[in-house]
Amino acid sequence: MTMYAMVDSPLGELLLVGEEDPGAAGTALVSLSVPGQKGAAVVQDGWVYAPSAFAPVAAQLREYFEGRRTRFDLVYAEGRGTDFQRRVWAALDAVPYGRTVSYGQIAERVGASGAGVRAVGTAIGRNPLLVVRPCHRVIGADGALRGYAGGLERKERLLGLEGALAAR
């Protein structure tokens, strides 16, 4: 069963989408999107509005936006995306709070060189878990903020929250 909830945040109202995960005795997060996001999930007929199922996610997001959480401890739905996308997304998960990396550095980490940087950028752009899977921490090799499905203003806001703008 697909469930969803809406959570207020400094980025706007976040749409959380999840599925029951019997192995984790809870909800596995499938998507976290912001208003106006390119490729964002859209509530479908048959989805169940279940804010209580997302209480742990909402609590961790609140702590993050208050500056009290630097890592998320959430259950994500497995098997989403291609093998390559999952490798890129795992590399994103390894980027520490308050740090940034370039698209080229992510490409190196996943063994994609040269033209692979473009494929890495595409995979990052398809990240279904904005904020909690930190694609906002990926910047251009020249230090410029580039591409963010939620908009560059939100990317800048997240990096500012993490203190990563001063660290560049």
Automatic annotation (TrEMBL):
Its EC number is 2.1.1.63. The keyword Ribosomal protein does not apply. Keywords: Cytoplasm, DNA damage, DNA repair, Methyltransferase, Transferase. It comes from the Bacteria. PANTHER family: METHYLATED-DNA--PROTEIN-CYSTEINE METHYLTRANSFERASE. Belongs to the MGMT family. This enzyme catalyzes only one turnover and therefore is not strictly catalytic. According to one definition, an enzyme is a biocatalyst that acts repeatedly and over many reaction cycles. This is Methylated-DNA--protein-cysteine methyltransferase. It comes from Streptomyces castrisilvae.
